[in-house]
Amino acid sequence: MNLYSTLFLIGILIATLIYYHVRHALYWSSRKVPSLWPLPLVGNFKDFVLMKNSPGEFMMSFYKKTEEPALGIFVFHRPSLFIREPSWIKSILVKDFNKFQDRVSSTDGHNDALGSRNLFRIKNPLWKEMRTKLTPIFSTAKIKNMFPLMTQVGEEFTEYLNEMLKVKNTDNMREACAKFTTDVITSCAFGIQANSFKDPKAEFRDIGRRIFAAEYLRALEISAFFFFPEVVSLLGFKLFEKYGTKFLRQSFNEVFNARVKSGTTRHDLVDMLIDLKNIKTAPGELKFEGDTLVAQAAVFFAAGYEASSGAISFTLYEIALQPEIQNRLRSEILSKIKEHGITYDAIKEMRYLDMVVCETLRKYPTLPFLDRMCLSSYQLPEPYEHVILEPGTPIYLSILAIHMDPKYYPNPEKYDPERFSESMKQSRDPYTYMPFGAGPHNCIGERFGLLQTKVGLVYVLKDFLVKPCGKTRIPLLLDSKAMFLAPKGGIQLQFERI
């Protein structure tokens, strides 16, 4: 083959590739949906791969590119729809849930037993059955029974801060709060004392660090679950690595089997999972046994410690910068403690504490975006009712962007708990505040997470004044390599005993 023939064939190949790329890139515009022009291979995710910003901030960038209800985007090779209108969000998450029952996110069922068999990852029809059986576990009454386990760790949190003050008056509160939530979760989910405050090599704390390590490769691995599930099995990506799976499985099974043998109860997740295992099931019905049991405790640990440690530390950061909010909050806490002691009912009566936590979760939602998969043909709402969404089309929305939209929250960068007074809450569309998601797929552990967060704040603020120090970053920067919202370099704060 001579040179001209070779060049001709190369030209044909290039022209063919360009033709197919352009044809693919016109997917949304040919349907008269506003869209972004994709790059080959990466689509509209070049900056995501380069990790110029945190994933939450990156997804928020799509929100800012249009004022339309939706935007056609390309998640790597796949045409996807980004939605931003609250009425659309309600339709897809709630009203038309039967057409969007699954998340896009996926894990490897063969190589990631704990990561694939939990409520967050499992697909329908098993998801519905699992959700129905797990929902009673997270009832108000069951969570109230766990309250003494939380306060026990709260006392250890206070002791830790007192010991810290003997040698220094500043600490990375992100890490300190992670120790608190790690110990609460392991106590409530595994029936084990993790001793994170006293043991710098505590294994549960180490496992937690590994799961959400803010490292480039780990961030890409976690991101693939949400944005490129096709490669998860191919590349062997896991939520729980081999060591973590072995440790969590062994820890849970030891406690579970000992509890079954002795018949003792502790009013924790282990007790409730024992009850689930003992329920007789019909042929073909989901059985709670083996790794299916372990997986519920494992994901409860992973999600629970990360979400609440962030909420506590972000709250302490914000109120350290606004002492008037901190003083008002502390006054309420001390008043209710004087009246009731540190009880479940006392914390439920702390209305301003609830407003403060709500404002933190507005500004720093742990999971800053949601994903859904279109399962059957779906006619889009107005003004795109001419578009029929194809099965297999991913849907994304940015919780962070909605929470930071001045249309819903004037001066959104300002930390203002008054946004969550009863009158203000009633004046807003409920689909403009979704820190725990919305619809049937909302976070099943919402009550537990809120209570754990409030307990942590109560035990810090009843005894300590929190201030910024020379190492406090103002403004706070988000870690670009953390899948969920996390502060870059932690949160350094100064403490004084009251």
From TrEMBL:
Pfam families (UniProt xref): p450
Superkingdom in the source lineage: Eukaryota
Cited Gene3D superfamilies: Cytochrome P450
Membrane topology term: Peripheral membrane protein
UniProt KW keywords: Endoplasmic reticulum, Heme, Iron, Membrane, Metal-binding, Microsome, Monooxygenase, Oxidoreductase, Transmembrane, Transmembrane helix
InterPro entries, A to Z: Cyt_P450, Cyt_P450_CS, Cyt_P450_E_grp-I, Cyt_P450_sf, Insect_CytP450_Detox
Subcellular location: Endoplasmic reticulum membrane; Microsome membrane
Cofactor(s) annotated in UniProt: heme
Alphabetized GO MF terms: heme binding; iron ion binding; monooxygenase activity; oxidoreductase activity, acting on paired donors, with incorporation or reduction of molecular oxygen
Amino acids binding heme: C443
Membrane-spanning parts: 6-22
Signal peptide region: none
GO cellular component, one term: endoplasmic reticulum membrane
Principal subcellular localisation of the protein: endoplasmic reticulum
Entry's family note: Belongs to the cytochrome P450 family.
Name this polypeptide is given: Putative cytochrome
Organism: Xenopsylla cheopis (Oriental rat flea)
